[in-house]
Amino acid sequence: MASFSLPPIHDNPDGGWGPSSSNLPEQFKFKDIPYAPYSKSDKLGRFADWNDPSGDNRGATTSIPSTQNQRGGGPGGRSRRDGNQAFGSGTASAFAYFHVEDESSFSLVDNKAAPPRRGGFTRGRGNTRGTAFNPRGNQRGGRGGFNAGGRGGQRGARRGWRDWEKSNRTRESSVAISPQWAMLEEIEFHRLAKLRLEVDDPEELETYGRLFAYDKSYDRITTKTEKPLQPVDRIKYNTTTSDDPVIQQLASKNTATVYTTDVILSVLMCAPRSVYPWDIVIVREGNNLFFDKRDGGPFDTVTVNENASDPPTDPAPPNPNNPAEKAAVPEPPSINSATSLSLEATYINQNFGFQSVIEKPPPVTIDFAHPNPFYGPDETEPLASCGYRYRVFDLGITEDEDIKICVRTEVDAYSPGQGNPHEGHGLVTVRALNEFDPRAQGAGGAPDWRSKLDSQRGAVVATEMKNNSCKLAKWTVQSVLAGAELMKIGYISRANPRDNTRHVILSTTSVRPTDFAAQLNVSLANGWGIVRTVTDLCMKMPEGKYVLVKDPNKPVIRLYAVPMTAFTTEEDEDGEGYEGEEHEFTS
Questions:
Q1: Do residues 426 and 418 make contact, with C-beta atoms less than 8 angstroms apart?
Q2: % pLDDT > 90, the chain
């Protein structure tokens, strides 16, 4: 009979549970046991990965955290695609168990039929149907054809590749912040989104300009009957608030407290949606506030895919501290960079508005009470169809408050048969969305307009509402401020994705601004609350000049006090540079 002896009992003199560390035998001190890092976010995945293409895991019966399995940090300590090792992947193999027997004869029998392959290309057929990446590969001359199909499959599999780099892209501010400027206030967007102010219908003071009738034949354009976009020489003014002679007259009569234009006001009312930087110059004279724009600033151009998950970007400027970069000859900007796309979209919007009205004799025009206030006697080029409505909105919360804002609003045409344009019935604003290259960075996953506009317009509209949320919201707010009954939106694409000088009109849609605002989830009450908050903030300050700046990389706006001489000399040079770029584009 086997003998049995009790193991020694180690008493803990410290009075705690279990043996003390001094009496613990060597074999229980975890000596020579490797340390394995552990993350609480790790989850247990497969017991053995039979589908691992990188090695033979038949004998591996260890549980591998799913985060390592997905990112390539398996038992072999493989590195992730970005070069950084997954957490704990280097030591996971220390606890793996492997059979010592020879399993070379082991095989897995699978009698299931292999599923049909989807995507990619079929040998011998090229890319006949295109891919989700380039759906019109062979339809329009086979751009890329076979190669485009191959790249499409690879890039589709790498969706989200290096997404962490997108957050590291920095943008430059729309205006250089001087160290001498004093920052007075900083407001986050989430605070702006909570503001509300209900405003009644406005009072119309004056009307200026002449309107042509909108050509309804543009409503019947389809992708099969596309029409080329033609450059038209017309003059249309975008004068800032302080330089407007009508506003100067109204301010001399103390008509309102705040004076601005619909372009500037819409940016402020839609500020929480903005991503790109902008700035508004605010001048206080007595009890009056003037919201101005800088010549050549962000208010003179139209953004493209500003709200896309990966919006278009501009190349980084050369580093002045690097002699090699400073001496290098700068390359011409890409036609798909943020600045080039912005100029292209501005060109498209202007010319589509000029082209879509009836000017052939006999033109049926609507003349407002006064002629265009900016058209001088020395001008020789014809005026574009444009009407200005100066309207006053009451921002008072109580009946005792006398805070009003005078806004110069614009309409582009009138719709025949929709009522009396003098009373605001039948007034139309004309805007245009543009498609560039769906394969370029910043396209935002937009579907091919030529194949989807007629059959799946809702998908195109939904994508544009996502990628251009801020731009569409600003256009809608401008139309509501002007009292327009309709907003015409043209869908204009490049004739060739590699050429940004020739465009075609693929379709036009009509929307009511108030209904479209509901679809975009645009709250006018929130916009008026932002305007009232900024107004109260500036009215607490002494007379002088201020600038409201949207941070280029954060959802924040800041108010700075600046000298009265700011934005008077250097900005003129910037304006000339912008005009030169625009002239080069329209020539």
A1: yes
A2: 53
* H or E, element range at 478: helix 469-482
Instruction: Name residue 140's amino acid.
Output: R
pLDDT in tens, 75-96: 444 444 444 444 444 444 444 4
∠ CA(393), CA(395), CA(400), 5° rounding?
Answer: 115
Q: Tokens for 109, please give them.
A: 């029998």
Q: Is the dihedral of CA 307, 315, 179, 267 positive or negative?
A: negative
- The DSSP bridge partners found for residue 386 are 210
Token output for 508? 């036009």
Q: Which residues contact 449 (CB under 8 A, 6 or more apart)?
A: 223, 435, 460, 491, 493, 506, 507
Give the three-class secondary structure for 519: helix
What burial letters (b/e) apply to 240-264, b meaning 16+ CB within 10 Å? bbbebebbeebbeeebbbbbbbbbb
Question: How far apart (Å, rounded) are the C-alpha atoms in residues 159 and 138?
Answer: 23
Q: What is the pTM of this model?
A: 0.69
Distance in angstroms (rounded) separating the CA atoms of residues 75 and 96 = 8
**Which range, of 280-284, 343-347, 458-462, 578-582, averages the lowest pLDDT?**
578-582
Longest dimension (CA), the chain: 126
Q: Which residues of 450-476 are buried (b: 16+ CB within 10 A; e: fewer)?
A: bebbeeeeeebbebbbbbbbbbbbbbb
Instruction: Collapse the DSSP code of 143 into the 3-class scheme (helix H, G, I; strand E, B; otherwise coil) and give the result.
Output: coil
Tokens of 403: 């805070």
Angle, helix 524-539 to helix 469-482, in steps of 10 degrees? 80
Residue type, 33: I
Take residue 364 and report the two structure tokens written for it.
């049926």
Average pLDDT, the chain: 78
What token pair was written down for 394?
Answer: 């009451």
Report how far Cα 144 is from the mean position of its chain's Cα atoms.
28
Local structure of residue 166 (DSSP, 8 states)? G
Cα angle: 98, vertex 102, 108; to 5 degrees: 85
The three-state secondary structure class of 577 is helix
Q: State the SS3 of 275-330.
A: CCCCEEEEEEECCEEEEECCCCCHHHCCCCCCCCCCCCCCCCCCCCCCHHHHHCCC
- Is pLDDT larger for residue 127 or for residue 284? 284
Long-range contacts of 249-253, Cβ-Cβ distance < 8 Å, separation of 24 or more: 250/205, 250/206, 250/390, 250/406, 251/288, 251/290, 251/406
**Phi/psi at 548 (5° precision):** -100, 120
